[in-house]
Structures are given as structure tokens and as C-alpha cells.
Amino acid sequence: MVTILITLSATLLCLTGSALCNVVQSPPDLIKNQNDTAEIKCAHNMTSYDRILWYKHTQATGFKFIGYLFNELGKTETEFENITLSGDGRKSGSLTITRLSVNDSAAYFCAAYYTVV
Hints:
Elements: E1 3-8, E2 13-14, E3 23-26, E4 29-33, E5 38-44, E6 51-58, E7 62-70, E8 73-76, E9 83-88, E10 92-97, E11 107-113
Parallel strand pairs: 1-11, 2-11
Antiparallel strand pairs: 1-4, 3-5, 5-10, 6-7, 6-11, 7-8, 9-10
């Protein structure tokens, strides 16, 4: 049996501004078996922010952009076919990884963002 460690950021990053954020991200870490499913939740309180961005960080690759949740639309990059994003980018969302493999062992970060027009 292969055990997979997924570490999460304890802080939500607020981009495009210096406003203070309040965030709840859970769980703080996960230990799962290969082929299990993992879910990471992220929430913010920024009323004008409409997106939650997700990133994966490993020592080997650095930060990689996974995708975003814009209002209720989740969009992931093609290389992350086992990841889905759901929720509402205006308040909270989830990143779900199915069919976990050792390649999913990483630190995952979410960031709140707002669209500038």
C-alpha cells in the first residue's frame, strides 16, 4: 500500500490589493492511500472578490497553476485531469483530487482574486 501526503497552505492569499483577508482552509493536512479521493476546502470573506485560484507546489516543479473557480464555474488546466473545482469563487470552494497517486503529494494553495475591468 502506498501512502500519499498532501500538505495544504494554512493561509489564503489575497491578490490584487492590500485588503485584509479572513479565511478558513481545511483540513490542514491529509494522509491518504493511493487511488483514494482527497478534498481541500477554501473560503474567504472578500465581498468584491469573485475568483479562487488554486496552485500546486513541489520542490521539483515549484508552483504550478491548477485552475480557478470563477463565480460558480470551475476550470482546470488539462494536465490536472483528476482534479475538479466546485463551489462559488465569491465565497468558498473545493478542490477534489480523485485517483490519488504519488505525483499528487504536494502543498496546495488557494488565492482570492477579483476581476478588474
